[in-house]
DNA sequence: CCTTAGAACATGTTCTGAT
DNA sequence: TATCAGAACATGTTCTAAG
């Protein structure tokens, strides 16, 4: 087998599912993800992991989500699944293994669900008002959404890509 | 085994990866997807398929995409992958098996890449103009984006959900 | 009730840019 | 050049609602 938890060099061409293949041609070197059977190309958030595990961990942190295990907090990858189905246990596996990620804007505390809803409503309302006012009256009032969008929490969908200036979809909601 | 291409009743609880499990408790009935090893619960686009194959097919049609096989148009599902990695061959497998889907708005011909770009630029420009004008002058001019968004091709990202009125993400780009 | 198209949500893979 | 966070893209799963 070509998998190694250590730094021993292994080879692979480019099997789409990032699973190890038989060493046919010497191309890229890799090791095994600390958390699942997939290939790990680099260290992610302080732990050698595959990209799937990286993104799973990242999204939960960014979106500031939390899950509760329905069982005994001992869920395992079952059947043909490569990872733990229970999000709570899968995430705990990440942190237990040493993954860590503290976004800059982490001081932004968790908005309550009601706050999030309020935020969305605010945007919708502001946009609606802008639409009305710009048709019927002249005003200097600032109708831009910057006030609301300013220091918005990462969990919201409406983030603007720093490079492209386009809206991102990671934050859901769209 | 509990898989059957016919209508014989099988059972499953709720294994996350839609793969058949051993018949433990009699709950739901299912058959095998015509195109892959997954479970098929219903007919989709005229063929008994799983939801993954359904969405794969749907998206290509909706987005009006086309792919070309880099090999001999004989690609197969390899290794641990459940489906054909080559999109061209996987899609052809769908149509060959009888899947069919002709959206209402199909008369909307394929916009050239340049047209697509132009569309995006139009929206951006219109939005920018609206932002400026509503600050400095009074006008009856319609600054809504409806003109542009009107009969827009499905392949564009900016579709509005008929029910929620929110932007959808299926169309990519956003 | 069924069936199933489509939306919504979740996850996985690849690309890009900064360092 | 190598690393890796983050964006962008692609795919898979679940939910909703119309008929
Ligand atoms: Zn992993
Ligand atoms: Zn658990
Ligand atoms: Zn299938
Ligand atoms: Zn092919």
TrEMBL record, chains A, B:
Chain positions covered by the region annotation Disordered: 1-25
GO molecular function: DNA-binding transcription factor activity; sequence-specific DNA binding; zinc ion binding
UniProt feature, compositional bias: Low complexity: 1-16
Gene3D superfamilies the UniProt entry points to: Erythroid Transcription Factor GATA-1, subunit A (3.30.50.10)
Domain Nuclear receptor: 30-106
Key words of the record: DNA-binding, Metal-binding, Nucleus, Receptor, Transcription, Transcription regulation, Zinc, Zinc-finger
Annotated family: Belongs to the nuclear hormone receptor family.
Protein name in UniProt: Nuclear receptor domain-containing protein
Organism: Caenorhabditis japonica
